[in-house]
Each structure stands twice: as C-alpha cells, then as structure tokens.
Amino acid sequence: MQTQGRLLSGVRVLDLTRVLAGPYCGMLLADMGADVIKVENPSGGDDSRSMGPFLGKGDDRQSAYYINFNRSKTGCTLNLKKPEAKEIFKKMVRKSDIVIENYRPGTMEKFGLGYDTLKEINPGIIYGCVSGFGHTGPYSRRAGYDIIGQAMGGLMSTTGWPGGEPTRTGTPMGDVLGGLNLTIGVLAALHRKQVTGLGEKVDVALVDSVVSAMTNITMIYLAEGRIPQRIGNRYESTYPYDSFSAKDGSVIIGAGNDKLYALLCDVMKKPEMKTDARFTSIEDRVAHHCELKKIIDSWTANYEIDKIVSLLNAAGVPSSPVNTLDRVVAEPQIAEYRNMFPAIEQTGIGAMKVTNNPQRLTETVSGPSKAAPLLGEDNLPVYKELLGYSESEITKLKNNGVI
Fold it and tell me: Keywords in UniProt for this one (predicted)?
C-alpha cells in the first residue's frame, strides 16, 4: 500500500476527511508518497461521491470531484458508530503516523476517538483537524463551509467591483487554504516527531486560513485605520497592476514599479506619460488610477490578447491573458511543461485527466500514483495485511455493518 521512491514513502496517514479541505490535504500527502488510507462510512462514503461532474454510466458512474481529491489513496470502509469499528480504528492508529479529519469539533470525542484518546494509544500520533472555526472559542461548534470562511475572514468584502456585491472567489479558496495549512502543519509536526518521538494536534480553521491569507490587505486597516473596499482587479499599493480590455477578452498588465511603467510607456509609444505629473511616481499612479486605466484601455482595445502579451513580455513587462479554462488546459507551459493535468486510469472509467499538485521535485516524484478508490475497494488488503484479520473475519465484519 506504499508508494516507493517519493518524499513521504513509509508515512501512513488515516484520512477520515470528506468533500474538499481535508481530502485536499490527504491528496497532497498521497501524491508525495504517503500511504494514505481513506476511511469512509460504508453507507455512501464521502459526500463528494454524489457531487458532479460525473463520468461513466450505470454502476460505473463516478464523481470527477471525488476522484480528483482522492486519487493516490487506498480506500476502506468503517462505521465508527459501531463499538467494534472503534476498536479496529484504534488498532490502525497504533500502526499509523498521522490522522486527519474535518468533522465538526467534538464529533471525534463523541466517537471516543479524540486526540486525547488517540495519543494514549500512540504517543507519536499526529492529529490534524480542519474545521470552520477551529477547536477553540465560542464559535467552535458552528458548522463552517468555504463560503463562511471567505465571508468571516474578510475575503469576500474585498472581492468584486466598486459598488457591487461582496463576491466569493471562483474557486473554494477557503477550503483550499485550509487544506494547505493542514498539510503544512502536519508535515511540521511530522518533523518534530522524527526528532522527539512525540506527536501533536494540528488545529486549522477555514476562517483563520482566510484571515492569514489577507495579510497585506489587513495591514491597510491596522496601519491606517482605513477599511479596504472592493476595487476590482487593481492592486491597492501600485498601478498599473490590473486587467485591461483587449479585442477578444481581458489581459493583465503588472507594471508594478517605475522601471516597468517606463517600459510600458515605450511599448505603447507614449513616452510623454513618463513625465506626466499625474503618473510620475507609484503613489501618483495609484491616486490617478482611473485616468491611467482609460489611457491603457484605449491602447489594449486595438489588439488581441495574445498580441498584447507577446509585445509586453518581449519588452520585460509582466503580462498574461485572463484565461478561460479551455485556454488553461491547452496552455503548453501549464499542461505540458508543468504537467498540471496528468491522466490516471480510473476503475470503471478508463483514462481521465485530473488536476495535479504544484510541487515539482528534482530527486523524487510527486503526483498522482493511482486511481481514486471505489467505496471499500481496499478493505481486504487494509484489514488483512495491515491488521491481520482473516478473510472470514472480514466477511463477518461486513455482514455486521462494521465495514
């Protein structure tokens, strides 16, 4: 059940998570070689198994959502409401390095499987949990989802256009940030365990993760007492650093300092703008961003996206298209050279592309190593090879609703 030749080979993770934040953490660990055992309720499993988009038909119909976040993992079922299942899980903990879960705080304690219990069984266990508000504070028992994290953490208040509604980012960024922070935390705890032999509880909140990511925006308020507002695609601290309209869509120009601004003026064949008093310094350009945007838009409107990007990057000015997803998956830099959409052979589906993790390593491999498990697909190897149960005992467990 282990992936050889990868950074985390030999590390065993019990993954009790579901939907996105927790499974994303488990996916990253699995792609880096950890033996991640996805533990699901036998009655339906991870909620995301029923979330679209779907591939296949009939009995082979599967969620692409689930597959993407659970590739590279081993899969077993265990009904933690059953007393026998709790004892089985404890046996698994004795043989593992990390447990990750994203239940509402208090749920694992109700099962009798909270951190205080598990560390008595295995003092070196690393217990990683991600929830809406974390395991402390008056809101800890509240349900928390991505949109709650983005709203409570301040991200939505600064996302969108002036005068418009607060806007959730197009991807579930609260969940992704929570999953990333859980990964960072458990890996740091794993290092400590290797030094001291002791485990750790890593408690991550979606709200905290968003607040942490808001760092420089929050500093505007902490330093100036000014509440940052929705400002579209421009940047608070420099300009032009924004999206502009081309013939066939939108393009980004990031002329974030005086040198880059001067190069932009040269490309636009408007050298007089370098000495225009409204635009002389970064502070001037931020103050007069509306006038500057109109001038740049009048130039970009004459060209298609790819032409603008080519002209500006050739001159050393950062620029990119605002890509729709069809362009993203066809972009050679992303899809070919960085291999961000590798194919896996999914049971019942065949070859399908998933979204890769972003780590590229020089000495080892990081990326999808196997298909996502069908529900309970690896019950036999997990319970027979890891815990020593006989096939007849495993059959009995299944018949009794334990697995």
Answer: Transferase
